[in-house]
Amino acid sequence: MGLKNYYNLAEKKLFEINRSITGNGTVKTLKIIKKNFKDLKIKKIKSGTKVFDWKIPPEWNVENAYIVDKDKKKIIDFKNNNLHLVGYSNFINKKIKKDELLKHLNSIPSKPKAIPYVTSYYKKYWGFCISEEQKKEIKKNYKKSDFFKVLIDSKFKKNGFMNYGELFLPGKSKQEILISTYICHPSMANNELSGPIVSMGLINFFRKTKNEKSLRFIFIPETIGSIAFLSQNFSKLKKNVIGGYNLSCIGDNRMHSCILSKYNSSPSDYALLEAYKDLRINYKRFSFLKRGSDERQFNSPGIDIPITSIFRSKYGEYKEYHTSLDNFKIVSFKGIKGGYSVALKAIQILDKKIIPKSKITCEPFLFKRNLNIANIQLKDFKSTILHFLQYSDGKNDLKKISNLIGLDFIKTKKIYNFLIKNNLLEY
Q: What is the pTM of this model?
C-alpha cells in the first residue's frame, strides 16, 4: 500500500470511529493499522498505573447517547456524529427540564454551524455538543417547562486499559529516531488522522530502505499516552534516541509550520530546517512557549528527549480546529503529500547525520591508552580529544561539534574516525 491508500483508509474506515484516550475506539483503530503492518505491537497499560506524576484513568466506553424531546423526537444523537458527546461523560438516564439541559449543551457562538470537540477526562461531568444554530433552535422552540429524556449509556472500567501501538525498524546503529503521532480524537481529520496517515506512509517507505539509525514509530493517546510511554521505556529511550518528530495537523493545504525542541538546537531541529530549505518550502516557526502537543512531554524537565513537532496548520491556529469542520474537505491528499514530503526529508537528513556518543562515563584516562596519533597533526591533540568527547553526548552532530571546539570539519572527521577505531565512541 502507498500513501494514497492510507489516506483512503483513514477517510473511509478510521474517521467514523469514536476514539478517546482509552476504550474500544482506540483498540479498533490500532487493529485496522495493524492489518497493514503486521509487526505493529499493540500494547496496554492497566488503569490506575502510576506514570510519573499521573495515573492511567479508568477505561471509558459508550454504547449510545441521545436526547429525546417531549414528542419522543431525537434532537441529538451520538450515532449521527460522535462529536455530539462530551468525551468521558458519565452515565445518565433521566428526564430534565430545559434550563438544566442547556447547562450541558456546548456550542461555539462564533462558529454557528460547527459542533465543538469537548472532553472531561479528569472531572466528573456529562454533556453534549451541538452547533450554535441548533442550540438557538432549542431555546426558541421549547418552553421552559418542557422535559427532555437524556440517555448516556457509558461505562468506566477501573480494571481497564489504555492502549497504544509501537513499531520498530532496526537500523545499522542502536541510535534511534522516534516518530510520534496520536490516536485519541473522534471524527476529526487534520487534528487526528493526518499524523497517522503520514506515519503509515513513512513506515511503508523506511521498511524498504537500509537505514543508518533505527526508527521507532508510536501511535499513542495524546498527553497521557506519551507520559505513559516515557514512564515505561525511559531508560532505553534516553540512551538511544537522538531526536525525532511529533506529527500533528499535517494534512491541510495551508502553510507549513513547526515547533522546534526546547533549545532550538537539536539534531532534529537542524534536520527539519534543512529539509524546508532543500524542498524550498516557506514555513512558520512557532515558539516552544506555544507548545501544546506531545512535544511538551518529550522535552519536559528530566526527560529532555529533543523531539520537534511538524505541522501544516498548527493545532489551535486554524478555524476548523477541534470542531466538526475539521473533516476531509480541509485535509486533501495533496496536503497530506506535502506534509509527508517534509517529514520524510527531515528523517532522511537526520538518519545520515553522524551523531557521536562517548562510550566512557566521565572523562577518559588517556594516559593508559597506547593511542596511535601519527596520522593526525594537531598541536594540542589530547586536549582536542577531550573537547570532542565533551560534546559527544548524543545530542550534537559532527558539524556542530566542529563549530563548538573551533576545529575545521576535515580534522573533526579525522578525530571522529580515530576515536571510533580506538573504541571510545559509539555511533
A: 0.90
